[in-house]
Amino acid sequence: MASAAAMSPLPVALGDGVVLRKYEMRDLEALWDAIDEERTRLGEWMPFVEGVRTIDDERTWLETVVADEASVGGGGLWSGSEFLGGVGLILGAVRHRRRDRLLDPREA
After folding, report:
1. 58 in a domain, yes or no?
2. CA distances from residue 18 to 5, 15, 26, 45 in whole angstroms, order as listed
């Protein structure tokens, strides 16, 4: 299997000041704020949310992602210092709580 670096070197400028890059430890507060503020909505689709109850829980996860340089599971879209959203690949089967319908962006 190819490494993340071989598949797509990051960061990537996407235009209009938006950058896709791997997470860094300095991103902890922005990631935590996004999870905590959107907990109910995210929890319907992202099984990890239930286990992330404190910023220390998020820190533990982020430390593992940052340490794994070959991982493609931890990246984000950023506009300057503003966190726009997370991006990652999960290889293998993933169970979601909501399989009954597709995400409708109008519900966001």
Report:
1. yes
2. 20, 6, 18, 24
* Residue (of 27, 3, 50) closest to 42 by Cα position: 50
CA atoms within 13 A on the CB side of 101: 5
Specify the number of domains making up the chain. Answer: 1
User: Which phi and psi (to 5°) does residue 58 adopt?
Assistant: -65, -40
- Whether 36 is in a domain gets the answer yes
- Predicted TM-score (pTM) of the model is 0.72
Element (DSSP H or E) covering residue 79: strand 75-79
pLDDT in tens, 60-84: 999 998 898 777 678 899 999 899 9
At 23-55, the pLDDT tens digits run 999 999 999 999 999 999 988 888 888 889 999
In a domain, 3, yes or no: no
Tokens of 90: 């999960």
84 three-state secondary structure: strand
Alpha helices, H only, the chain: 4-7, 28-37, 39-45, 55-67
